[in-house]
Design goal:
Protein name: LuxR family transcriptional regulator
Distance between the termini: 38 Å
GO molecular function: DNA binding
CATH topology of the largest domain: Rossmann fold
CATH architecture of the largest domain: 3-Layer(aba) Sandwich
Keywords: DNA-binding, Phosphoprotein
Pfam family, one: Response_reg
GO biological process, one term: phosphorelay signal transduction system
Helix content: 40-55%
Number of domains: 2
Strand order of the largest sheet: 2-1-3-4-5-6
Shape: globular
Order of helices and strands: EHEHEHEHEHEHHHHHH
């Protein structure tokens, strides 16, 4: 067994085809340490909190659960594993599939035509807080969340509700930073960060950090 790279990130692969999971594991770069696999919604929900991966490579269409597939995994784990990032990896390039899983909280979406090197690079970027999409899929997200001048004006109006500090906190939380990381970066206490986040969610009429990420992405703020 080779020595783990210092830059390695911990990943769980969720896909109902064992051959695909095995092939993907073999193709991922040395930066990736696969710490678990799951084949169904329920298996994923049971596994992920225990191993606390940095990134989950998540298929969109999964058996089990209430039939919600990858989006259901995201919804059921939203409040349980807030530090884990999710990257959708699916054979589907349908607009509905892309938009639904992003709305549920995924940080990106690649089709299974991506190479192992491309998936590795995308996982690293998602772990770092970026949003990553296969080129033709990004348009679906921008179309779904609105990119016109009216949306830009609305974003400006909504941002005006936030103080400068709240905007700083909002962008970091939307990028996936943990409260402790935000506190360290901005020289604040964790309690102060929590207060700012509560204020941001209230002012923007959002319910949680996943909705905040989707909102910030739709306004081109990330």
């Amino acid at each position: 067994m080779t020595e783990e790279s210092p830059a390695a990130i911990r990943v769980v692969i969720v896909d109902d085809h064992q051959i695909f999971r095995t092939g993907l594991r073999a193709e991922l770069g040395q930066e990736i340490e696969v710490v678990g696999e799951a084949a169904t919604v329920d298996e994923a929900v049971a596994l992920i909190p225990g191993v606390a991966p940095d990134v989950v490579l998540l298929d969109v269409h999964l058996p089990g659960g209430a039939g919600g597939g990858g989006a259901e995994v995201l919804q059921r784990l939203a409040a349980v594993t807030p530090a884990t990032k999710f990257l959708a990896l699916s054979v589907s390039d349908a607009a509905d599939d892309v938009v639904n899983v992003i709305r549920a909280g995924a940080r990106g979406y690649l089709t299974k035509t991506a190479s192992g090197a491309e998936v590795t690079a995308a996982a690293l970027r998602v772990r770092g807080g970026d949003a990553v999409f296969s080129p033709r899929l990004a348009g679906f997200v921008l179309d779904a969340f609105g990119t016109g001048l009216g949306e830009t004006a609305a974003a400006d109006d909504e941002l005006d509700r936030l103080t400068a500090r709240e905007q700083e906190v909002m962008r970091m939380i939307a990028r996936g930073y943990a409260y402790k990381e935000v506190a360290a970066e901005l020289f604040l206490s964790v309690k102060t960060v929590e207060t700012h986040v509560s204020s941001v969610l209230r002012k923007l009429q959002l319910s949680n950090r996943h909705e905040l990420t989707a909102w910030a992405l739709s306004k081109r703020l990330l």
